[in-house]
Protein backbone atom coordinates (compact mmCIF):
# COMPACT_ATOMS: atom_id res chain seq x y z
CA UNK A 1 0.00 0.00 0.00
CA UNK A 2 1.30 3.44 -0.96
CA UNK A 3 2.36 5.57 2.01
CA UNK A 4 3.19 8.95 0.55
CA UNK A 5 2.93 10.60 -2.85
CA UNK A 6 5.95 12.81 -3.46
CA UNK A 7 6.93 12.40 -7.10
CA UNK A 8 4.29 12.32 -9.78
CA UNK A 9 4.67 11.21 -13.36
CA UNK A 10 2.68 13.32 -15.79
CA UNK A 11 2.31 11.79 -19.24
CA UNK A 12 1.46 14.22 -22.04
CA UNK A 13 2.75 17.78 -22.39
CA UNK A 14 -0.33 19.30 -23.99
CA UNK A 15 -2.29 22.23 -22.58
CA UNK A 16 -3.91 20.35 -19.75
CA UNK A 17 -0.76 18.43 -18.87
CA UNK A 18 1.28 21.60 -18.54
CA UNK A 19 -1.30 23.17 -16.25
CA UNK A 20 -1.26 20.06 -14.07
CA UNK A 21 2.56 20.07 -13.92
CA UNK A 22 2.59 23.71 -12.76
CA UNK A 23 -0.14 23.00 -10.23
CA UNK A 24 1.85 20.07 -8.77
CA UNK A 25 5.06 22.11 -8.60
CA UNK A 26 3.25 25.02 -6.93
CA UNK A 27 2.05 22.59 -4.26
CA UNK A 28 5.36 20.97 -3.42
CA UNK A 29 5.32 17.80 -5.52
CA UNK A 30 8.22 16.77 -7.74
CA UNK A 31 7.31 15.92 -11.33
CA UNK A 32 8.54 13.76 -14.18
CA UNK A 33 6.92 15.05 -17.37
CA UNK A 34 6.97 12.67 -20.33
CA UNK A 35 5.96 13.28 -23.93
CA UNK A 36 7.13 11.56 -27.10
CA UNK A 37 7.00 14.79 -29.08
CA UNK A 38 10.29 16.69 -28.80
CA UNK A 39 8.89 20.01 -29.96
CA UNK A 40 6.09 19.73 -27.36
CA UNK A 41 8.72 19.13 -24.68
CA UNK A 42 10.78 22.12 -25.77
CA UNK A 43 7.71 24.35 -25.68
CA UNK A 44 6.69 22.80 -22.36
CA UNK A 45 9.86 23.83 -20.54
CA UNK A 46 9.41 27.44 -21.57
CA UNK A 47 5.70 27.58 -20.76
CA UNK A 48 6.10 25.92 -17.39
CA UNK A 49 8.87 28.31 -16.41
CA UNK A 50 6.83 31.37 -17.37
CA UNK A 51 3.71 30.08 -15.62
CA UNK A 52 5.62 29.28 -12.42
CA UNK A 53 6.98 32.83 -12.44
CA UNK A 54 3.88 34.70 -13.46
CA UNK A 55 0.73 32.79 -12.43
CA UNK A 56 0.69 34.33 -8.92
CA UNK A 57 -0.35 37.60 -10.56
CA UNK A 58 -3.67 35.89 -11.28
CA UNK A 59 -4.03 33.92 -8.05
CA UNK A 60 -2.35 35.34 -4.97
CA UNK A 61 -2.55 31.98 -3.20
CA UNK A 62 0.21 30.68 -5.46
CA UNK A 63 3.82 31.39 -4.59
CA UNK A 64 5.97 32.26 -7.58
CA UNK A 65 8.82 29.87 -8.37
CA UNK A 66 11.46 31.74 -10.30
CA UNK A 67 14.62 29.90 -9.28
CA UNK A 68 15.69 27.90 -12.30
CA UNK A 69 17.81 25.61 -10.12
CA UNK A 70 14.82 24.74 -7.96
CA UNK A 71 12.74 23.99 -11.03
CA UNK A 72 15.52 21.86 -12.50
CA UNK A 73 15.78 19.90 -9.24
CA UNK A 74 12.06 19.25 -9.02
CA UNK A 75 11.05 18.81 -12.65
CA UNK A 76 12.41 16.23 -15.04
CA UNK A 77 11.23 16.70 -18.63
CA UNK A 78 11.89 13.67 -20.76
CA UNK A 79 10.80 11.62 -23.74
CA UNK A 80 11.76 8.37 -22.00
CA UNK A 81 8.73 6.75 -20.34
CA UNK A 82 11.04 4.53 -18.25
CA UNK A 83 11.91 7.59 -16.18
CA UNK A 84 8.58 7.38 -14.35
CA UNK A 85 9.72 4.12 -12.72
CA UNK A 86 10.28 5.75 -9.31
CA UNK A 87 7.14 7.88 -9.41
CA UNK A 88 4.54 7.40 -6.67
CA UNK A 89 1.51 8.33 -8.77
CA UNK A 90 0.81 8.76 -12.49
CA UNK A 91 -1.42 11.31 -14.20
CA UNK A 92 -2.04 10.55 -17.86
CA UNK A 93 -3.10 13.30 -20.26
CA UNK A 94 -2.35 11.97 -23.73
CA UNK A 95 -4.38 12.28 -26.93
CA UNK A 96 -7.90 10.89 -26.74
CA UNK A 97 -7.17 7.82 -28.88
CA UNK A 98 -8.00 4.42 -27.46
CA UNK A 99 -5.12 2.59 -29.13
CA UNK A 100 -2.53 5.11 -27.94
CA UNK A 101 -3.85 5.01 -24.41
CA UNK A 102 -4.08 1.23 -24.39
CA UNK A 103 -0.43 0.90 -25.37
CA UNK A 104 0.62 3.50 -22.82
CA UNK A 105 -1.22 1.88 -19.90
CA UNK A 106 0.22 -1.48 -20.72
CA UNK A 107 3.72 0.05 -20.68
CA UNK A 108 3.04 1.91 -17.43
CA UNK A 109 1.83 -1.32 -15.88
CA UNK A 110 5.22 -2.88 -16.62
CA UNK A 111 7.31 0.13 -15.57
CA UNK A 112 5.65 1.33 -12.36
CA UNK A 113 5.79 -0.23 -8.90
CA UNK A 114 2.77 -2.40 -8.20
CA UNK A 115 1.31 -0.08 -5.53
CA UNK A 116 1.31 2.99 -7.80
CA UNK A 117 -2.08 4.40 -8.84
CA UNK A 118 -2.85 5.63 -12.34
CA UNK A 119 -5.12 8.63 -12.83
CA UNK A 120 -6.57 9.14 -16.27
CA UNK A 121 -7.10 12.80 -16.91
CA UNK A 122 -9.06 11.51 -19.84
CA UNK A 123 -11.62 13.44 -21.77
CA UNK A 124 -14.28 10.79 -22.25
CA UNK A 125 -13.07 7.17 -22.16
CA UNK A 126 -14.55 5.09 -19.36
CA UNK A 127 -12.26 4.59 -16.35
CA UNK A 128 -13.46 0.99 -16.00
CA UNK A 129 -12.40 0.35 -19.60
CA UNK A 130 -8.96 1.89 -18.93
CA UNK A 131 -8.61 -0.17 -15.76
CA UNK A 132 -9.18 -3.27 -17.89
CA UNK A 133 -6.08 -2.45 -19.93
CA UNK A 134 -3.93 -2.91 -16.81
CA UNK A 135 -3.33 -5.58 -14.21
CA UNK A 136 -4.30 -3.11 -11.50
CA UNK A 137 -7.91 -2.02 -12.23
CA UNK A 138 -8.41 -1.22 -8.53
CA UNK A 139 -5.67 1.40 -8.78
CA UNK A 140 -7.05 3.23 -11.79
CA UNK A 141 -9.11 6.34 -11.22
CA UNK A 142 -10.22 9.34 -13.26
CA UNK A 143 -9.28 12.88 -12.33
CA UNK A 144 -10.70 15.53 -14.59
CA UNK A 145 -8.53 18.57 -13.93
CA UNK A 146 -10.06 21.74 -15.27
CA UNK A 147 -7.97 24.06 -17.42
CA UNK A 148 -5.74 25.67 -16.27
CA UNK A 149 -5.49 23.35 -13.31
CA UNK A 150 -3.51 25.73 -11.08
CA UNK A 151 -6.40 28.23 -11.08
CA UNK A 152 -9.21 25.75 -10.50
CA UNK A 153 -10.15 24.65 -7.02
CA UNK A 154 -12.53 21.82 -7.86
CA UNK A 155 -11.92 18.60 -9.77
CA UNK A 156 -14.24 15.91 -11.02
CA UNK A 157 -13.02 12.53 -9.78
CA UNK A 158 -14.32 9.41 -11.47
CA UNK A 159 -14.61 6.13 -9.68
CA UNK A 160 -14.39 3.18 -12.06
CA UNK A 161 -16.31 0.01 -11.25
CA UNK A 162 -13.18 -1.54 -9.71
CA UNK A 163 -11.49 1.55 -8.24
CA UNK A 164 -10.58 0.68 -4.65
CA UNK A 165 -11.30 2.77 -1.56
CA UNK A 166 -7.54 3.01 -0.98
CA UNK A 167 -7.03 4.51 -4.45
CA UNK A 168 -9.75 7.05 -3.73
CA UNK A 169 -8.06 7.96 -0.44
CA UNK A 170 -4.59 8.28 -2.00
CA UNK A 171 -6.11 10.50 -4.69
CA UNK A 172 -8.07 12.53 -2.18
CA UNK A 173 -4.96 13.18 -0.06
CA UNK A 174 -2.95 14.26 -3.09
CA UNK A 175 -5.70 16.54 -4.38
CA UNK A 176 -6.34 18.05 -0.95
CA UNK A 177 -2.61 18.82 -0.76
CA UNK A 178 -3.23 20.75 -3.99
CA UNK A 179 -6.08 22.61 -2.23
CA UNK A 180 -8.68 20.97 -4.44
CA UNK A 181 -12.19 20.04 -3.59
CA UNK A 182 -13.33 16.73 -5.08
CA UNK A 183 -16.65 15.92 -6.68
CA UNK A 184 -16.69 12.14 -6.97
CA UNK A 185 -18.91 10.68 -9.68
CA UNK A 186 -19.53 7.23 -11.09
CA UNK A 187 -18.21 6.01 -14.39
CA UNK A 188 -19.79 6.36 -17.80
CA UNK A 189 -18.05 7.79 -20.89
CA UNK A 190 -17.66 11.58 -20.65
CA UNK A 191 -18.60 11.49 -16.94
CA UNK A 192 -20.58 14.61 -16.02
CA UNK A 193 -18.55 17.57 -17.27
CA UNK A 194 -17.46 16.41 -20.71
CA UNK A 195 -20.68 14.62 -21.53
CA UNK A 196 -22.50 17.94 -21.16
CA UNK A 197 -19.82 20.44 -22.22
CA UNK A 198 -19.09 18.65 -25.49
CA UNK A 199 -22.73 18.89 -26.46
CA UNK A 200 -22.52 22.64 -25.87
CA UNK A 201 -19.35 23.00 -27.95
CA UNK A 202 -20.64 20.76 -30.74
CA UNK A 203 -23.98 22.56 -30.96
CA UNK A 204 -22.19 25.93 -30.94
CA UNK A 205 -20.21 24.72 -33.96
CA UNK A 206 -23.50 23.73 -35.66
CA UNK A 207 -24.83 27.23 -34.97
CA UNK A 208 -21.80 28.75 -36.72
CA UNK A 209 -22.07 26.20 -39.54
CA UNK A 210 -25.73 27.16 -40.02
CA UNK A 211 -24.69 30.83 -40.13
CA UNK A 212 -27.04 31.60 -37.30
CA UNK A 213 -24.37 33.68 -35.60
CA UNK A 214 -20.64 34.37 -35.75
CA UNK A 215 -18.38 32.75 -33.11
CA UNK A 216 -17.90 35.92 -31.07
CA UNK A 217 -21.66 36.42 -30.80
CA UNK A 218 -22.26 32.82 -29.76
CA UNK A 219 -19.66 33.19 -27.03
CA UNK A 220 -20.94 36.62 -26.03
CA UNK A 221 -24.38 35.18 -25.33
CA UNK A 222 -22.89 32.54 -23.04
CA UNK A 223 -20.67 35.03 -21.25
CA UNK A 224 -22.95 38.00 -20.93
CA UNK A 225 -26.35 36.33 -20.73
CA UNK A 226 -25.46 33.13 -18.87
CA UNK A 227 -22.51 34.52 -16.92
CA UNK A 228 -20.07 31.87 -18.15
CA UNK A 229 -16.41 32.93 -17.95
CA UNK A 230 -15.76 31.61 -21.45
CA UNK A 231 -18.04 30.83 -24.37
CA UNK A 232 -18.24 27.29 -25.84
CA UNK A 233 -16.22 28.15 -28.94
CA UNK A 234 -13.45 29.90 -26.98
CA UNK A 235 -13.39 26.83 -24.76
CA UNK A 236 -13.19 24.52 -27.77
CA UNK A 237 -10.30 26.58 -29.15
CA UNK A 238 -8.53 26.37 -25.80
CA UNK A 239 -9.00 22.60 -25.45
CA UNK A 240 -8.06 22.01 -29.09
CA UNK A 241 -10.61 21.28 -31.80
CA UNK A 242 -8.98 17.93 -32.53
CA UNK A 243 -9.36 16.91 -28.88
CA UNK A 244 -12.99 18.02 -28.90
CA UNK A 245 -13.60 16.02 -32.08
CA UNK A 246 -11.89 12.90 -30.69
CA UNK A 247 -13.93 13.18 -27.49
CA UNK A 248 -17.17 13.48 -29.43
CA UNK A 249 -16.17 10.42 -31.41
CA UNK A 250 -15.63 8.48 -28.16
CA UNK A 251 -19.01 9.65 -26.84
CA UNK A 252 -20.73 8.75 -30.11
CA UNK A 253 -19.06 5.36 -30.24
CA UNK A 254 -19.78 4.65 -26.57
CA UNK A 255 -23.44 5.65 -26.42
CA UNK A 256 -24.36 5.02 -30.08
CA UNK A 257 -26.51 8.11 -29.73
CA UNK A 258 -26.72 10.56 -32.67
CA UNK A 259 -26.80 13.53 -30.36
CA UNK A 260 -23.00 13.12 -30.07
CA UNK A 261 -22.31 13.16 -33.82
CA UNK A 262 -19.48 15.56 -34.54
CA UNK A 263 -20.43 18.74 -36.41
CA UNK A 264 -19.10 18.62 -40.01
CA UNK A 265 -17.68 22.13 -39.63
CA UNK A 266 -15.60 20.95 -36.67
CA UNK A 267 -14.33 17.98 -38.68
CA UNK A 268 -13.47 20.24 -41.60
CA UNK A 269 -11.59 22.67 -39.38
CA UNK A 270 -9.54 19.84 -37.86
CA UNK A 271 -8.80 18.42 -41.34
CA UNK A 272 -7.67 21.90 -42.39
CA UNK A 273 -5.31 22.25 -39.45
CA UNK A 274 -7.45 24.78 -37.60
CA UNK A 275 -6.94 23.14 -34.22
CA UNK A 276 -7.55 26.15 -31.99
CA UNK A 277 -5.35 28.28 -29.80
CA UNK A 278 -2.36 25.91 -29.83
CA UNK A 279 -1.84 26.60 -33.56
CA UNK A 280 -3.16 30.16 -33.27
CA UNK A 281 -6.10 29.39 -35.52
CA UNK A 282 -9.50 27.93 -34.76
CA UNK A 283 -12.85 29.66 -34.38
CA UNK A 284 -10.66 32.68 -33.62
CA UNK A 285 -7.22 33.79 -34.73
CA UNK A 286 -4.49 34.36 -32.15
CA UNK A 287 -1.26 36.30 -32.25
CA UNK B 1 16.86 48.66 -29.04
CA UNK B 2 20.24 50.18 -28.09
CA UNK B 3 21.33 52.25 -25.10
CA UNK B 4 21.16 55.60 -26.93
CA UNK B 5 17.54 54.90 -27.77
CA UNK B 6 16.84 53.87 -24.19
CA UNK B 7 18.01 57.24 -22.91
CA UNK B 8 15.47 58.98 -25.12
CA UNK B 9 12.60 57.22 -23.34
CA UNK B 10 9.98 59.47 -21.93
CA UNK B 11 7.07 58.46 -19.73
CA UNK B 12 4.77 57.76 -22.65
CA UNK B 13 6.69 56.28 -25.51
CA UNK B 14 4.50 56.10 -28.64
CA UNK B 15 6.60 53.31 -30.13
CA UNK B 16 6.13 51.14 -27.05
CA UNK B 17 2.45 52.06 -27.02
CA UNK B 18 2.03 50.92 -30.60
CA UNK B 19 3.73 47.62 -29.93
CA UNK B 20 1.66 46.92 -26.84
CA UNK B 21 -1.57 47.83 -28.63
CA UNK B 22 -0.56 45.66 -31.60
CA UNK B 23 0.02 42.69 -29.28
CA UNK B 24 -3.30 43.10 -27.49
CA UNK B 25 -5.12 43.71 -30.79
CA UNK B 26 -3.67 40.57 -32.33
CA UNK B 27 -4.92 38.60 -29.35
CA UNK B 28 -8.38 40.12 -29.20
CA UNK B 29 -9.14 41.22 -32.75
CA UNK B 30 -9.98 44.68 -31.36
CA UNK B 31 -7.96 47.39 -33.08
CA UNK B 32 -8.88 50.49 -31.14
CA UNK B 33 -7.90 50.23 -27.50
CA UNK B 34 -8.21 53.16 -25.15
CA UNK B 35 -4.92 53.94 -23.37
CA UNK B 36 -6.67 53.98 -20.02
CA UNK B 37 -9.15 51.13 -20.51
CA UNK B 38 -8.70 48.40 -17.92
CA UNK B 39 -8.28 45.49 -20.30
CA UNK B 40 -9.11 42.90 -17.63
CA UNK B 41 -12.13 44.58 -16.07
CA UNK B 42 -13.60 45.53 -19.44
CA UNK B 43 -13.54 41.87 -20.47
CA UNK B 44 -11.25 42.58 -23.43
CA UNK B 45 -8.93 39.85 -22.14
CA UNK B 46 -9.10 37.41 -19.24
CA UNK B 47 -6.54 37.31 -16.46
CA UNK B 48 -4.68 34.39 -18.08
CA UNK B 49 -3.63 36.82 -20.78
CA UNK B 50 -1.41 38.52 -18.18
CA UNK B 51 1.06 35.61 -18.43
CA UNK B 52 1.28 35.95 -22.21
CA UNK B 53 1.58 39.73 -21.89
CA UNK B 54 4.43 39.57 -19.39
CA UNK B 55 6.22 36.95 -21.49
CA UNK B 56 5.82 39.20 -24.53
CA UNK B 57 7.10 42.40 -22.92
CA UNK B 58 10.12 40.62 -21.44
CA UNK B 59 11.14 39.35 -24.85
CA UNK B 60 10.16 42.37 -26.89
CA UNK B 61 11.75 45.01 -24.67
CA UNK B 62 14.51 42.91 -23.13
CA UNK B 63 13.44 43.59 -19.56
CA UNK B 64 12.89 41.35 -16.54
CA UNK B 65 9.58 41.10 -14.70
CA UNK B 66 10.32 40.24 -11.07
CA UNK B 67 8.17 38.77 -8.31
CA UNK B 68 7.81 42.29 -6.89
CA UNK B 69 6.25 43.42 -10.16
CA UNK B 70 3.45 40.84 -10.02
CA UNK B 71 0.44 43.09 -9.64
CA UNK B 72 -2.37 42.86 -12.16
CA UNK B 73 -2.89 46.60 -11.81
CA UNK B 74 0.56 47.25 -13.30
CA UNK B 75 -0.55 45.58 -16.53
CA UNK B 76 -4.18 46.67 -16.55
CA UNK B 77 -4.02 49.50 -19.11
CA UNK B 78 -1.87 50.25 -22.14
CA UNK B 79 -0.71 53.41 -20.41
CA UNK B 80 0.37 51.57 -17.26
CA UNK B 81 2.13 48.83 -19.25
CA UNK B 82 3.96 51.53 -21.18
CA UNK B 83 4.99 53.24 -17.94
CA UNK B 84 6.21 49.92 -16.51
CA UNK B 85 8.23 49.01 -19.62
CA UNK B 86 9.70 52.49 -19.86
CA UNK B 87 10.77 52.57 -16.23
CA UNK B 88 12.33 49.11 -16.51
CA UNK B 89 14.21 50.06 -19.66
CA UNK B 90 15.42 53.27 -18.08
CA UNK B 91 16.62 51.48 -14.97
CA UNK B 92 18.47 49.00 -17.19
CA UNK B 93 20.57 51.79 -18.73
From TrEMBL, chain A:
Keywords assigned by UniProt, alphabetized: NAD, Oxidoreductase
Domain 3-hydroxyacyl-CoA dehydrogenase C-terminal residue range list: 190-286
InterPro entries: 3-OHacyl-CoA_DH (IPR022694), 3-OHacyl-CoA_DH_NAD-bd (IPR006176), 3HC_DH_C (IPR006108), 6-PGluconate_DH-like_C_sf (IPR008927), 6PGD_dom2 (IPR013328), NAD(P)-bd_dom_sf (IPR036291)
GO biological process, one term: fatty acid metabolic process
Domain 3-hydroxyacyl-CoA dehydrogenase NAD binding residue range list: 7-187
GO molecular-function terms, A-Z: NAD+ binding; oxidoreductase activity, acting on the CH-OH group of donors, NAD or NADP as acceptor
Name listed for the protein in its UniProt record: 3-hydroxyacyl-CoA dehydrogenase family protein
Automatic annotation (TrEMBL), chain B:
Entry-linked InterPro entries: ACP-like_sf, PP-bd_ACP
Species of the source: Fulvivirga sediminis
Pfam families documented for this protein: PP-binding
Protein name (database record): Carrier domain-containing protein
Domain Carrier: 11-89
Amino acid sequence: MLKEVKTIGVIGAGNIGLGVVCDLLFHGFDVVLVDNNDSALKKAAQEIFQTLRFAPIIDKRLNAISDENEIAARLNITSDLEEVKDCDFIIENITEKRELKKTLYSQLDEICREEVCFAANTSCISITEIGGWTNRPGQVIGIHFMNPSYLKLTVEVIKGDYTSENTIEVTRTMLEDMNKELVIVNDLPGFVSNRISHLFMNEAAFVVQDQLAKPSDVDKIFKECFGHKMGPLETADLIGLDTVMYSLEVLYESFQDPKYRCCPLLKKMVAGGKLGKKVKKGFYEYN
Amino acid sequence: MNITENKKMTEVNPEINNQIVAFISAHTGVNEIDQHENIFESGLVNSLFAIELMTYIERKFNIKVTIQDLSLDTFSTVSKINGFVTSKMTSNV
